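Hey, resending since the last one bounced:
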Amino acid sequence: MLNLNEEYLIHRKWMKQALKLSQLAGEAGEVPVAAVVIDSSQNMIAFCENRKQRDNDPTAHAEILAIREATRRLQSWRLDECSLYVTLEPCPMCAGAIVQARVNRLIYGVDDPKTGAIRTVANIPDSAASNHRLSVIGGIRESECRLSLQTWFANRRHSTT
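The structure tokens again:
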């Protein structure tokens, strides 16, 4: 069993991977959000970034795409042995998918004050409508995740003026 310091370092490692992927999304004109799925042996089994604009698909959020890839690779819709790392607190759609996929643990970078559905605006995993409880850890590499999003949106506003 890992001690808290070892676990924290692991969370930072995987969030760093998600942050690198989020930069690719931002460079492609997407909101810079990315997700990584890790199995219980600490192997990365799926990683995706937002593709909503590129795919013309309103469901192409990083979390949804990563869940789809992980379930395909594991050949099971249950991700109860997996952790999901995402740079931004999931929206209601993604929170619902996380619950439906039975993700064991969600680790995210920064709260989303507009659409966060894990603990900021709503709490879908702990609601009466949820049929699955998962562990949630927020604030991993929080300032880096926030800066990535703020910089991307500032550059976008600047380029449209």
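The chain has a mean pLDDT of 95.

Sorry for the duplicate.
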